[in-house]
Amino acid sequence: MNYTYILRCADDTLYTGWTNDLEKRIKLHNTGKGAKYTKARRPVALFYFETFPTKKEAMRREAAIKKLSREQKLALANP
User: Fold this and answer.
1) Which residue among 4, 31, 52, 55 has the highest number of C-beta atoms inside a 10 angstrom radius?
2) What is the pLDDT of residues 66-75, one digit of tens each?
3) Contacts 24+ apart (CB under 8 A), 75-79
4) Domains of the chain with bracketed CATH
5) What gap in Å lies between CA 57 and CA 77, rounded to an integer?
6) CA distance 74 to 19
7) Is the pTM of this model over 0.90?
8) Residue 41 to residues 2, 54, 64, 74: CA-CA distances in angstroms?
């Protein structure tokens, strides 16, 4: 199963992505080993999550989410 997610980080930035191993990815980010993340940007909340049967569908949704404004991303978490 593939997932699309949005993480809210400690410095209040938002990151989106897709992965079939979300738990491992969050652990890497929390230890500061993620490519985009420093210790100041550790994810503090996973606030949007969808599942997709194929990687292609997850990537398509993630691309659509990246085009949204910050307010629209926050609205996904608070319907």
Assistant:
1) 4
2) 898 988 888 8
3) 76/6, 76/48, 77/6, 77/47, 77/48
4) 2-77 (3.40.1440.10)
5) 20
6) 20
7) no
8) 24, 29, 23, 18
Tokens in use for 51? 């599942």
**pLDDT tens readout for residues 58-67:** 889 889 988 9
* Nearest of 11, 17, 12 to residue 35 by alpha carbon: 17
Residue 33 pLDDT class (50, 70, 90 cuts):
low
Q: Taking the CB of residue 17, how many other CB atoms lie within 10 A of it?
A: 19
What the block records as the tokens of 40 is: 């100041």
pLDDT above 70 covers what percent of the chain? 77
State the Cα–Cα distance between residues 47 and 44, nearest whole angstrom.
9
Closest CA to 50 of 11, 20, 13, 8: 20
Q: Side chain identity at 55, as an amino acid letter?
A: K
